[in-house]
Amino acid sequence: MWDPLPLRRRIAQRLCEVVQPEVWVVDDVSFPKCGTTSLGVARQYCGALGKRANCQVAVSVHAATDAASCPLEWELFPPEEWAHDDRRHQRAGIPEQAGHVSKAHLALGLLDRLAAQGLTVPVVVADAGYGRSVSLRLARRFLEDAGLSYVVAVPKSQQVHGPRIDHLIDQAPPEAWQRLSCGDGATGPRLYDWAAARLPAVWEFDGDEPTRQRRMLARRSTTRPDEIAYYLASAPLDITVADLARIAGCRWKIEECFQSAKNECGLDQYEVRRYVGWYRHITLVTLAHVFLAAMTVQEREKGVTRPTHPSSWISPRQKSAVCWQLNPTVALHGARTQ
């Protein structure tokens, strides 16, 4: 008998030493199942199938860079229907303290556990599936109170100091949009048009001399201008739009990470039904994936230098409460022609 938790702690520490992650990404993955006795199985949305189905769902935190990503910690999501079923709990060997909580609360617990190990949290990134959650809005306050930076995708209906975020982005001046890469894809740089604006400080939380600035961010397709993704961020004062775009783009590495873990490490190839068995399997998969991720980083870093990013200009316009960060090329051209 062996406890998988101490091993995962050692794996996470070693991973951060080797990979030196730029972001920690919160996400979840689903495992389709046929029966009803496997740990945490229930009819719920299954991302692997793109519909509601009988499956297990695991929440994870991944360490990611432009070059690679790898899971740091996992937690199996306990469906609500399991919460009061003592018989299923006993058959699956679930600890008494493991009750039903939201995915966002599971993610917060993982972040807290990793931080308690002394690991440095660079920037926390999450997609809109978490950004629309009420509990993650509370989590953003938790991250700010802990002095952590984040870039979280949100739905277009997200309110920002009153107005919806999509209405505020509609007011962005043309010179606020910058064509930037958010990372390399299969066919080259993933180019989008990006716009960002600084949000007003909140004295009750930020004090007289804030060290971080809240921002809203938008990513617009270059071929379909009506396709826009929205983000809220809290980051150091001197961060640029290019940096925010690159950080937001790191989340896509997680999709590759899940696929790699399934294809090369057998992430979804298991038939265990009990609590300890599932966590042992996920721990050994993480160990194998860390080795592959470390090898990937070492190969890509040979002779590779990170490109520098242009600084952003601050818009002098005061038509709204936000302050747009302008494309430096457009701003410089306008200054020369005046």
TrEMBL record:
Q: Which Pfam families match?
A: DDE_5
Query: Which spans of this chain does the record mark as coiled coil?
Result: none
Instruction: List, alphabetically, the InterPro entries matched.
Output: IS701-like, IS701-like_DDE_dom, RNaseH-like_sf
Q: Which organism is it from?
A: Streptomyces siamensis
Q: Where is the Transposase IS701-like DDE domain?
A: 2-164
Q: What is this protein called?
A: IS701 family transposase
